[in-house]
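ARCHIVE RECORD
Type: protein–small molecule complex
Small molecule: glutathione
Source of inputs: curated submission
Record status: active
Notes field left blank by submitter.
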Amino acid sequence: MSNPTLTLHSYRRCPFAMRVRMTLEEKQIEYTVIEENLSEFSKELLEAHPQARVPLLIAHWAPSESSPHSMAIYESSIITEFVDETFTDKPLMPKDAGDRAKVRLLTYWCDQIFKPDLDLYKYELKNLTSEEFAQLRVRLNSHLRKIETELSESQGNFLIGQSITLADIHLFPLFRQFKRATPVFSDLSHYSQLNHWLESILARPSFERVMNKNLKV
Ligand SMILES: N[C@@H](CCC(=O)N[C@@H](CS)C(=O)NCC(=O)O)C(=O)O
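STRUCTURE (tokenized, with ligand):
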């Protein structure tokens, strides 16, 4: 089957949408972006996503195929894996099954553990007791140490080896959001691997293209 054409319903400031756009840019895949307004989603998104969220990817297979069809895919990490499996050039998942499990475990950690604490810091700070705030700081510091350890134990500059994988692409937008939201943790001088990792991803052309308002949207 030929590769589908892709339309991404996105929102510029959404870290989950950024995961998908970085994946598409890393793999140099053409796609159309529909920039959504979070307070008034498009009809197409409302019909296709059971929870009404960005990102949403519509994949459309060409009419010349025997059974042309479209498919709506949501949940950023499901979209990025779909894209990586469908467009096989420049793979972003490791070859080894254990390493692929590691990508998914890191993604699970990002979404279920790191992001809720980041949101607590970003949106709920004024509602926390001083004890809750102290506990949150301890957890945030341990999250930084976890990422630093993962990078130190890797055989390369990325979370899993020498090449960028979906583990880096899934963590990066959340980490960038964390760094911007938590000035108290902005000094990463004690986390040399993390600092280096962050700088190297910020310098990638894929990130530049995602941030460049004139190139997409
Ligand atoms: N787990 C989802 C999270 C997506 C998400 O939370 N998107 C936010 C924007 S960053 C959204 O669309 N929020 C709208 C809403 O909840 O009403 C994913 O990975 O795609």
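CURATOR ANNOTATION: The CA atoms of residues 58 and 158 lie 30 Å apart.
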